[in-house]
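User: Show me a protein chain along with its predicted structure.
Assistant: Here is one chain, sequence first, then structure tokens.
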Amino acid sequence: MKKSLLLCGLLTALVATTISPSRASATPGATTWAPVEMIAAGGTTTPVSYPYFTLAGVTTIAGCANLGVPTGTTKVIFAMTVDDRGKEQMSLIQSALLSGRSVLVNYDTTVTLNGYCQATAVYIK
């Protein structure tokens, strides 16, 4: 009985330390409402190979990579996937940029594209 309890305890500890760290270090959050500052297509000749955007005033988010855009400034880059969801989100971002409306971006620092934060949700005001 003691051996099986000890074994159960060890297995539980092993599973907890193997599974928990990735979610424990996750930092879900949201930006404040901010206007879209820039949209870029990304590509093989740019530092970010995915379509991306920046928001005015969003200069640092712990766990998200920054890029000097334009040179001399630091902005958080929100990279977008090129699947249907990413295209829908980018459509909202483009609408906000063209209409001058603000957006709120939800993110999770464990959901990144090459270190750049990926929007998990986009809202337009």
